[in-house]
Task: inverse folding
């Protein structure tokens, strides 16, 4: 073998190795992107169906004998009347063959327990409807909802003990008569948590998240900016300030669950603040967000050129006036961008909030930062844990709402950065 | 007056103080602002700060100390027989008293001693609240009058205000330190109580973990055992799987993006990878439980293996996906920091691109890359939601990725979520685990930063 042949062969081998290496790189990037697409794809596919729900159109006779036997229209009596019996009567009128006790129970199970609430609200809003026959849309049970959306086959429903053949026949008949239809699921956005998947919503969690983040913002933003001003503009360079700086960087790397332990030990056990409260959650998240805000604010202030400071000093401004009137306003877009990103991270945080008891079953939206609440990511966690099949789509839908909030916040941060970005 | 009303009132007085101070300064200067030492607004701030700071400081101090003092007073007033109980029992009794006092409004019942103590508690609370209101308002008004008296053309209001503001800024920078101290103290304090009940060596080197203590002493397994080695092993297993995914993928992506990709590809791919870093971990956990775990199980069954439904493999894979951006973005930064002259030198010697990367760039960037791996490992160890939703609960000492294992964070969550009994070793064990977690992640971070700093090649 000549030298030239040898070199050519080696060159070929080296070029093959080059191509392989390049392919590894492409493979790595593509696999990361594919995984991301898969993640978002499954959530969208699973979750989008939760934005519609299934309703049944029933012809209901609001029987005075059941709702208001003594015809006094007493509000308490009206509230406590047996509306389930009225729903059942309406269904039985359509399917008179259901007579036995268990058959009637199965028939009633076609409708959601929320059907009673719909009727009750109707009667409470206008007691004059008692005794009339009305057409009402009531929510169907979660099983019918899944069946209609094709999320559950009949075979699965039977094997899971969810529905039986008789109920299928009733459902098919209702569907054939055009009485079962899908509508936009407003309940999902306006209701709180519920044990019934078809009645569960995210409103109380959204309000909880909002309150928690408000506390976080009020605590972390001023503290973070003040600390950054001191460290960046005034602190003498010595061991003490070095220690503070190291401290802040370390704090940024502490696992979030440890902040939850801190909250449990200090805010709940020592200070005796109420469990599950947005106030405590907000404080814990504020401590977590603080390093992010400080670091962002410092680098934003660092980017303001010294000439601005010199000019202000030259005009007789005191050091604090230089910062308050010139450096801070110029650095504000950068500070806001960093803070919004920090807040977005706080919005998605779950683990520390589990520690301070924000896992309670919350039906009503919290009314104050001291009342028990849950937040959106915790709601996702709770629903994901639920064995009910119908909660899977609710979970995915809640994730979609959470991601939508995050997209809005990050979009705002990017917009601010683009709009106010300044090269000196 | 309740706390928030008092707070509002003090803020209102301070705002009033601003106008009082400014107005008085201008009047004393006979409306010729130029004779004043400072701008008129500073006299306003001076008065406002004199009102707010002492009053708010008193409130903060009061609210921090009040629970402890009231607790001691209530306990001191209990019958002697009760006071001689064990501290845990007294703690429990005190909680009952507080809860009774809170529930009294809705007509709670209990034994007479508890009710009496609850009444005492309520009365102390009311007294304390009234005393605080009176004292804080007195301080606020005194501050207003004192500062107003001092306002005049010769008062150096700006200097005084700036001194106060500077002190406030400095205090704010101490909060981060306070948070760290708080973390360390609360973890240490509870851990020490745990180690009173369970020896440190048993905890760190014991091979059996089953923290569920039985309710009655005579039940089987009533003592609970706290050997944390299986928990640590599970954490390491899942972290190792995660790094097997994130290491190669993250590093190769970083190399591709900095060396091969065109600027346009880079501009698209880099933000998309950052999206991965912005997704809440609870979403990854949901993905793991919903999609990956069943997929892994099905694959395993197709290959004839028995796979646990909460296998370490599924949790580790998803955890790996989560930490990819940490590895890739940090490695990308260090690779980009390698100077172009090194690349040009390698090319001039006839090296191909991959040879340059492997033999020149990676060695030059190695400390940074190791640092990024360490940071990613520390992330993975401390990550909670993915493993809570996709990993198991039972501690098993195994290296088989197809079995279910548990991790430190999962144990902390399961021990602390739900009903807790204070002072049971079960609850305290969570803090001991938290302490280990805190120390390990802190050490990893410090080592990572050290490596990056110590071995960084200085070019030029």
Result:
């Amino acid at each position: 073998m000549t030298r030239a042949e040898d070199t050519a062969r080696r060159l070929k081998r080296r070029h093959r190795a080059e191509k392989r290496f390049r392919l590894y790189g492409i493979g790595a990037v593509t696999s990361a992107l594919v995984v991301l697409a898969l993640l978002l794809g499954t959530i969208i596919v699973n979750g989008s169906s939760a934005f519609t729900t299934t309703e049944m159109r029933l012809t209901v006779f609001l029987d005075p004998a059941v709702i208001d036997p003594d015809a006094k229209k007493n509000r308490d009596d009206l509230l406590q009347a047996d509306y389930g019996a009225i729903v059942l009567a309406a269904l039985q009128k359509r399917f008179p063959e259901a007579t036995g006790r268990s058959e009637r129970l199965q028939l009633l199970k076609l409708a959601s327990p929320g059907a009673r609430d719909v009727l009750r609200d109707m009667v409470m809003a206008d007691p004059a409807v008692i005794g009339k026959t009305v057409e009402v849309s009531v929510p169907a049970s979660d099983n019918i909802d899944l069946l209609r959306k094709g999320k559950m086959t009949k075979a699965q429903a039977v094997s899971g003990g969810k529905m039986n053949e008789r109920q299928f026949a009733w459902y098919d008949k209702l569907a054939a008569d055009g009485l079962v239809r899908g509508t936009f699921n407003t309940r999902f956005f306006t209701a709180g948590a519920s044990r019934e998947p078809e009645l569960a919503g995210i409103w109380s969690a959204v309000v909880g998240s909002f309150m928690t983040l408000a506390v976080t913002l009020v605590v972390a933003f001023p503290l973070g900016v003040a600390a950054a001003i001191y460290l960046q503009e005034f602190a003498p360079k010595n061991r003490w300030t070095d220690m503070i700086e190291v401290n802040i960087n370390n704090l940024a790397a502490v696992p979030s669950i440890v902040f939850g332990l801190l909250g449990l030990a200090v805010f709940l056990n020592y200070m005796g603040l109420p469990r599950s409260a947005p106030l405590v959650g907000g404080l814990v998240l504020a401590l977590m967000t603080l390093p992010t805000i400080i670091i962002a604010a410092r680098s934003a202030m660092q980017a303001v050129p010294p000439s601005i400071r010199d000019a202000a000093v030259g005009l007789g401004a005191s050091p604090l006036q230089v910062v308050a009137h010139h450096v801070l306003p110029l650095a504000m877009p950068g500070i806001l961008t960093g803070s919004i990103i920090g807040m977005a991270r706080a919005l998605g945080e779950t683990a520390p909030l589990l520690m301070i008891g924000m896992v309670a079953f919350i039906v009503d939206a919290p009314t104050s930062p001291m009342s028990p609440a849950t937040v959106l990511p915790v709601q996702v966690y709770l629903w994901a844990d639920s064995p009910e099949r119908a909660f899977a789509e609710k979970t995915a839908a809640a994730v979609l709402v959470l991601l939508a909030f995050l997209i809005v916040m990050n979009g705002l941060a990017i917009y601010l950065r683009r709009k106010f970005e300044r090269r000196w | 007056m309740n706390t928030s009303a008092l707070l509002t009132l003090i803020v209102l007085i301070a705002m009033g103080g601003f106008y009082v101070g400014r107005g008085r300064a201008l009047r004393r200067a006979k409306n010729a602002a130029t004779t004043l030492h400072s701008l008129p607004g500073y006299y306003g701030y001076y008065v406002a700060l004199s009102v707010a700071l002492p009053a708010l400081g008193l409130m903060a101090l009061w609210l921090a100390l009040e629970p402890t003092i009231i607790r001691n007073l209530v306990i001191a007033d209990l019958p002697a027989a009760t006071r001689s109980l064990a501290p845990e029992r007294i703690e429990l009794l005190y909680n009952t008293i507080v809860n009774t006092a809170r529930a009294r409004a809705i007509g709670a019942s209990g034994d007479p001693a508890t009710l009496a103590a609850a009444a005492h508690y309520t009365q102390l609370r009311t007294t304390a609240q009234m005393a605080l209101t009176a004292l804080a308002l007195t301080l606020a008004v005194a501050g207003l009058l004192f500062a107003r008296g001092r306002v005049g053309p010769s008062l150096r209001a700006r200097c005084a205000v700036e001194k106060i503001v500077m002190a406030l800024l400095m205090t704010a920078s101490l909060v981060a330190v306070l948070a760290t101290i708080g973390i360390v103290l609360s973890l240490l304090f509870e851990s020490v109580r745990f180690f009173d009940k369970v020896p440190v060596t048993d905890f760190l080197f014991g091979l059996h973990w089953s923290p569920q203590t039985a309710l009655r002493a005579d039940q089987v397994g009533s003592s609970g055992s706290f050997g944390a080695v299986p928990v640590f092993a599970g954490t390491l297993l899942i972290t190792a799987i995660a790094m097997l995914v994130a290491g190669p993928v993250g590093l190769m992506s970083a190399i591709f993006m900095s060396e091969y990709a065109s600027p346009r590809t880079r501009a698209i791919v880099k933000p998309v990878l950052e999206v991965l870093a912005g997704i809440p971990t609870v979403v990854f956990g949901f993905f793991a439980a919903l999609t990956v775990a069943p997929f892994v199980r099905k694959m395993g069954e197709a290959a004839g293996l028995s796979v646990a439904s909460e296998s370490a493999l599924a949790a580790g894979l998803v955890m790996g996906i989560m930490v990819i951006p940490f590895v890739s973005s940090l490695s990308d930064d260090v690779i980009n920091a390698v100077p172009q002259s090194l690349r040009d030198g390698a090319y001039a010697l006839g090296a191909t691109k991959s040879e340059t990367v492997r033999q020149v760039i990676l060695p030059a960037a190695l400390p940074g890359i190791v640092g990024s791996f360490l940071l990613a490992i520390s992330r993975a160890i401390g990550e909670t939601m993915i493993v809570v939703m996709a990993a198991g609960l039972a501690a098993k000492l195994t290296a088989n990725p197809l079995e279910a294992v548990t991790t430190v964070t999962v144990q902390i969550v399961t021990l602390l979520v739900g009903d807790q009994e204070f002072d049971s070793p079960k609850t305290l064990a969570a803090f001991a685990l938290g302490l280990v977690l805190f120390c390990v992640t802190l050490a990893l971070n410090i080592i990572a930063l050290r490596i990056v700093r110590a071995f960084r090649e200085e070019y030029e």
In short: Chain B has a mean pLDDT of 84. Residues 38 and 158 of chain B are 6 Å apart (CA to CA). Chain B touches chain A through 88 residues (CB under 8 Å).
